[in-house]
Structure prediction request, 418 residues.
Amino acid sequence: MGDELVEATIEKMVHGGQGLGTLPDGRRVFVWNALPGETVRVRLLKSKKGYAEAMAEEIVTASPDRIPPLEPESYLATSPWQMVAWQDENKYKKEILIESFAREKVTLPPFEFVHDDRDFGYRSKMEFGFWGDDEGIHLAHFVRGSHGKSKVIGSALAMPALNAAAQAVLAEINTHKMRAGDMKSLMVRADQKGNTVVALFVKREDFTHIKKPANVQGLVVYYSNPKSPASVATKLLYVDGERTLRDTVMGTELRYDVLSFFQGNLPVFELAAARINDQTKAAKNKIDMYSGVGSIGIPIKGTNTLVELDPANAEMAKNNIGKRPIKVVQASAEKALEQITKDATIIVDPPRAGLHPDVTAKLIEAKPALVVYLSCNPSTQARDVKLLIDGGYTLKNFEGYNFFPRTPHIESLAVLTR
Prediction:
């Protein structure tokens, strides 16, 4: 949008992670790198008739909540809340939850915002891009607000073993004559013991075979159609080593793949799973409608059925079940509506889009006595909870969770009863 800077005063943090302010022309502006109470000079990234998006380039008056970011050159790419004090991050996230539900005219009961003590070094999954120059190929992240990339050596959010694995694979890549443009992304996962699996997504089916580093448990290389998003597998090229990781949730061992849906901050997720178990303790017929590999439905007691769309996740869930009397239905939640019955307790952990309208309608029609809703998107959860309340449910219990410190992401758990 140009290099001209305009001044704005920031009023509050909003869902998505920006500060909200007003431009001199009266338009509302959503600003990255800005905190409530600050006066900032911003560069416009997107300018529409009624609003704008911007990046704060100069902090004229700083908030007392502002702190120096741990990664000043790259934090805005993946963890844009590195510049806010830890206790204030949790305060802002709780306020965003309250406001998200208030927009749907839902008043939340008094609730806790749950986290542990780790605000760095916690993530067990990270993705990197690539950047090539005369010195070789480097890991990179996209620069927020532009189409450019910045070189990085890892991430302060990531578990140390994860960063070490990424650098080891990068070193192996640099022993070959490769172009950064032939590769799309590098995905790294680590279990809580520090074992790592790396998935490399490349643009050529004849990609050079690279050696698995000694500190990496498994290396998986995928051809990915150049027209598809970065980490989408089109064809498996080869596997070197063991690609399956293992972790425990509430004492239950679960296996998952490098591409499986599995939580990236297991200790905090385990707190949420324990809460779900506590809230559903008396129920006997529990249905987990978006189960992934079974990370909620298998550890809690009394689960009857897992519903999962992705074939690989569904197969992994079957392996995790073992001899437990749990069945797996491979289908989308909206294609498995027969599982929603009056005598069932329904557990949902949908993607960011929230519940499919058919799922919400079936819940209201079938009237199960208890619905437990874990969400990664306060806006869509608030929308769905409002519909369920209008359909006869009461919001019995609510909690917020900081699964991803130093990022704007918020998780929340709503328990609804008839």
About this structure: The chain is about 20% helix and 35% strand. The mean pLDDT is 96. Residues 86-103 form the longest helix (18 residues). The radius of gyration is 23 Å.
